[in-house]
């Protein structure tokens, strides 16, 4: 990882999940010369607003975010927002499998499984199908999503086993997240600039770095 020879894919259920969970890693991959991609599985607004103009606006925000991180491209799955638990599992699988076939990633990042948001859980499960043994993906990692992973009743259930030093990429992550104008919140909400920096600093103390992102290793073949 981070050697400039890999393709990586970050899978998120909604616009902004990709940067909240792995924005620092995306920026670090891009800076190292890796071919970084993001996949947004749902439309991001359908259920809440039913507004096609807002859907396109969020796509533009996603593209701006990707540009700020240095990612190569954002892919869109167009599945219904906040309703993935009503979508056939094979349909969600197919969206992720299709982008994996196109990108041929060495590493894939996805949601952790224990999440408040049910779309996140569906994306996690389908990512494991799309990256099953024989898929060509060598590493599958799960990220935490502020305001979902940490809001799970009874504890977040997130047990990171890999920490990525993002000391030089925290400001890039925050600037990229701020491309999502409709998703940013005031501190102390987890989706605020101050909270994202605080989370990065806290994860850094877990591994002896000034700032870090934390991941669960789901699969790793070497």
From TrEMBL:
Keywords on record: Hydrolase
Domain of life: Archaea
Gene3D superfamilies per the UniProt record, alphabetical: LmbE-like
Annotated EC: 3.5.1.-
InterPro entries hit by this protein: GlcNAc_PI_deacetylase-related (IPR003737), LmbE-like_dom_sf (IPR024078)
Enzyme kind, highest EC tier: hydrolase
SUPFAM superfamilies for this protein: LmbE-like
Keyword Hydrolase: yes
Molecular-function GO terms, alphabetical: hydrolase activity
PANTHER family: N-ACETYLGLUCOSAMINYL-PHOSPHATIDYLINOSITOL DE-N-ACETYLASE (PTHR12993:SF11), N-ACETYLGLUCOSAMINYL-PHOSPHATIDYLINOSITOL DE-N-ACETYLASE-RELATED (PTHR12993)
Protein name as annotated: PIG-L deacetylase family protein
Origin species: Halobaculum litoreum
Taxonomic classification: Archaea, Methanobacteriati, Methanobacteriota, Stenosarchaea group, Halobacteria
């Amino acid at each position: 990882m981070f050697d400039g020879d890999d393709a990586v894919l970050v899978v998120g259920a909604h616009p902004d999940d990709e940067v909240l969970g792995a924005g620092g890693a995306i920026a670090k991959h891009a800076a190292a010369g890796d071919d970084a991609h993001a996949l947004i599985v749902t439309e991001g607004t359908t259920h809440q607003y039913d507004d096609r103009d807002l859907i396109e606006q969020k796509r533009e925000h996603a593209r701006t975010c990707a540009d700020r991180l240095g990612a190569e491209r954002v892919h869109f799955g167009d599945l219904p927002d906040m309703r993935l638990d009503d979508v056939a599992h094979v349909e969600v699988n197919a969206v992720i499998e299709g982008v994996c076939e196109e990108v041929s990633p060495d590493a894939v990042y996805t949601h952790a499984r224990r999440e408040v948001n049910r779309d996140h859980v569906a994306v996690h499960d389908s990512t494991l199908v799309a990256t099953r043994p024989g898929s060509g993906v060598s590493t599958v990692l799960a990220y935490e999503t502020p305001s979902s992973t940490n809001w799970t009743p009874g504890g977040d259930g997130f047990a990171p086993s890999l920490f990525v030093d993002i000391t030089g990429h925290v400001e890039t992550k925050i600037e990229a997240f701020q491309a999502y104008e409709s998703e940013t919140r005031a501190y102390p909400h987890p989706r605020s600039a101050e909270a994202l920096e605080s989370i990065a600093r806290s994860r850094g103390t877990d591994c002896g770095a000034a700032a870090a992102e934390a991941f669960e290793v789901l699969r790793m073949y070497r």
